[in-house]
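Suppose you are handed a protein chain with no further information: no name, no annotation, nothing but its sequence. What can you learn? This example shows the usual starting point.
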Amino acid sequence: MRPSAWIAVLCLLPGGVACRKPQDAGVAAAQEASAPVHVTTVPVVERPMPQLLTLTGNLRASADSDIAADVSGRVIATYVERGQPVKAGQTIAIVDSRIASLTATAAAAQAKVAQSQLEEARRDCERVEHLLDTGAISQAEFDRQNTQCTAQQFSAEAAEAQQRTALTLAGDSTIRAPFAGVIGERAVNVGQYVQPPTHVASIYVPDPLRLELTVPEANVAAIKVDMPVHFTVTAYGDKDFTGTVKFISPNVRETSRDLVVEAVVPNADLALKPGMFAVAKINLGDAPRPVVPRSAVSQDDTGARLFVVADSQIQERLVQLGQAVGDVVAVVQGVKAGEAVVVTPGPGVRDGARVD
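A reasonable first move is to predict its three-dimensional structure. Written in structure tokens, the prediction is:
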């Protein structure tokens, strides 16, 4: 049988596949796409849901200090390293105090000289006062001598003050920790020359820490002392840490229109470190919100969306989500109570599709 005859036979078969034109296939695909889809829906309901205020901030040590030298000289010993815990008064470093001791000795000698000069000046004042009483000297001469006595007294007091300062510096050659904490860094080594402004070491108190947060002006009235704060840090993923609001700034910053608050965070295991960036949430209380099943929501880089059935047709909605509790999530914007949402959208669910 000739090929044309076979084609004729196939065209007569049910469906006529061999004779279907390309445009016929396109029409069939369009009919299939417009076919109604079967979906399961649930109504959107309202229920009390927590209102969470999301803030960002940084962890700070509850106390920190840069320890400086109080005396000039060379460092002859150091006793701490980075990360080492220290007690209050523990020795950080020792500075060679020989120069300070010599300065103190010289100041003490100068103070004695000034005291001797003061005693001599007082005796002179007593003599001129007697001479004034007897008329042996004029009032002008007495006033001049009395002024010298007063000036000498001031000189003696200045010399005594210099002596006390020199003695203090001589005694401060041992640099100590001002409070118990952990050494952040040691900035000097043996043999290095230091003087009073020189930074020697830094010390931190890591437990508890303070979480410093900035609250937008619109939310200032909602922040109260003793409110719990839950936060996460990048180093520990989704692990939840907790603190308590303890310190609230009395003023809103004019430049940024926000309020600085601090939450105290227990840190007995020292897992958290000062300087860490934190994302915190504060529960402002419950409020009625539309809620939908979590399975109804799909999210990607463009946002969150779900599908609503209205007038037997599917509508795709971009939504703004709130807090999730259990298997439901609050919707801040995008749907309202009473609307029907698709519970578990399948591959055939799309915007504009008809439902059966």
